[in-house]
Write a structure and sequence with these properties.
about 160 residues, mainly alpha, 5 helices
Amino acid sequence: MPKRTVREAAGRALQRLLRRVLAGADEAIECGDRAKLHAMRIAVKRLRYNTEFFRALLGAQGESATDILSRLQEHLGTIADADAFELVYEELLDCLDGDDPRAFGLESRRQATRTERERALEALRSLWKDPEQRYRERLAASISAAVGSLSPKPE
């Protein structure tokens, strides 16, 4: 088995992780499905952490990729939190009688959480699909450029 340099291993890892992010992102963002968005969140997190780990090798393009991933991760985290709160509120409401005064407060908070989720999902859709933002293309380009920077340098 040929020995790989850290540069080669980093390039391969980042390309593989980018493919995972891009593979399901369009569908997850379009449909807004909890499980698909969670899978995207995990993929984005892994790519971001690996990009940060190899930052010294990646240069400015790696920093650009990290910034994009950070923004995506922020919106995906808000959505994941809202989804988790929704489950908690649902369980709590199931334990209360319909005329329990706490039910009104929980239902209000539940609705606020749904609104927050929708805002985060719309922001994510805008970043991902808006022709001016072009996050998908910018992410792919910045990772490609960063991985290209890992190519062996002439001596």
